[in-house]
Design brief:
By secondary structure, the protein is α+β, with helices and mostly antiparallel strands. It has one domain: Alpha-Beta Plaits (2-Layer Sandwich). It is built from 11 helices and 10 strands. It has a 4-stranded mixed sheet with strand order 8-1-10-9. The longest helix has 24 residues. It binds iron/sulfur cluster (3 copies).
Length: about 325
């Protein structure tokens, strides 16, 4: 165990800082949004891999997890999530694939739905992570820190679309609690955080435009303008909108000729792993309890302290906790 008491304190204060920062910006809607026009996406027929998917994988490949093997199961589970031998999988979200093109047939017509993080205005993933590993950025994107994430998957549990995906055998839990907490790091689209901070568009947006030009599926830009554009097109062309109200609003707006209720029904009938529920309220907006969250964070920190003490003294975490009383 290499983590010193000083290291632990630094980690704890980083955790608290990130935790508080993650929640202080939670009401901000953010600067940017993406409009995704389902009537224009053909799923990149005749391409070996959809351009948007390839662009995301190429751009982010340096950040994909390289797990330390053998991967051990962590208490109390007997299994772990390892996608490292399935890196080529492109038809679903994985720690190595942060966008995929979902296909659904409605009235004999295939609809292609690029799926990635919705970047919610008030993201439950940010608010509910006990380690403060997620933050909502001023640009509107929610971002997971691979330095703070323990892989407990709370973010996936509370995400209405179950977007973040876990890879075991990587992350800080290996240094702190390899057997007792977490189990890896969660990965998802961060809206190309470094690019958008520099005023550049996300890689998937550019890749689709390079292929389709004026008919590109994605339009990325100022959030207010994107919302206005979606509403204008919906009104003028009789299109339906998804993402502007769901989960209290998001920075990813879909427009479609087919009602989203119909798409939802078809995805449900197919028992798809990733659904598109239309009636979707933000459950935590009215129930957030900051006192409870602070108590939870303190509990996590003291649990970590006890575990570190245990590892150092080779006692069980419970014994170490008792001996500090
Ligand atoms: S969004 Fe664009 S790049 Fe992605 S599958 Fe559809 S057409 Fe291809
Ligand atoms: S879609 Fe899920 S992972 Fe993305 S910001 Fe919203 S709650 Fe978080
Ligand atoms: S915005 Fe960036 S990280 Fe997100 S899916 Fe597109 S390319 Fe990937």
């Amino acid at each position: 165990m290499n983590l010193s008491r000083r290291g632990f304190l630094a980690f704890s204060s980083m955790l608290c800082g990130s935790f508080l920062l993650g929640n202080s910006a939670d009401a901000a809607k953010g600067k940017y949004a993406t409009l995704i026009d389902l009537s224009k996406c053909d799923g990149c027929t005749n391409e070996p891999i959809p351009r948007c998917v390839k662009a995301c994988r190429d751009y982010n490949k340096e950040r994909f997890p390289e797990p330390k093997k053998p991967i051990l199961p962590y208490w109390p589970r007997k299994t772990y999530e390892d996608w490292s031998d399935k890196r080529d999988k492109i038809d679903t979200l994985t720690p190595y694939n942060w966008i995929f093109v979902q296909k659904v047939n409605i009235d004999d017509k295939q609809i292609n739905i690029p799926r990635r993080c919705m970047h919610c205005d008030n993201p439950p993933c940010v608010r509910e992570c006990p380690f403060g590993a997620l933050t909502k950025q001023p640009e509107g994107n929610s971002v997971i820190s691979d330095k703070l994430c323990f892989g407990g998957a709370k973010c996936r549990d509370v995400c209405p679309w179950h977007i973040p995906q876990r890879q075991a055998g990587v992350g800080i839990y290996l240094q702190i609690l390899p057997k007792y907490a977490g189990g890896g790091v969660m990965y998802k689209c961060d809206l190309c955080k470094d690019r958008i901070k520099n005023g550049e568009e996300p890689a998937c947006v550019i890749a689709c435009r390079d292929r389709l030009g004026q008919n590109a599926v994605f339009t990325f830009g100022d959030r207010n303008q994107i919302y206005e554009l979606a509403q204008k097109r919906a009104k003028e062309e009789g299109l339906y909108i998804y993402g502007d109200k769901q989960n209290g609003g998001t920075s990813t707006i879909y427009i479609s000729k087919v009602p989203f209720e119909t798409i939802e029904k078809a995805l449900k009938a197919n028992k798809e792993r990733f659904q598109m529920p239309v009636k979707l309220e933000n459950k935590i907006e009215s129930t957030f309890n900051p006192i409870g969250k602070i108590a939870l964070a303190s509990g996590v920190i003291s649990m970590l302290g006890a575990a570190i003490g245990a590892i150092k003294s080779k006692k069980s975490p419970k014994e170490a906790e008792d001996s500090e009383k």
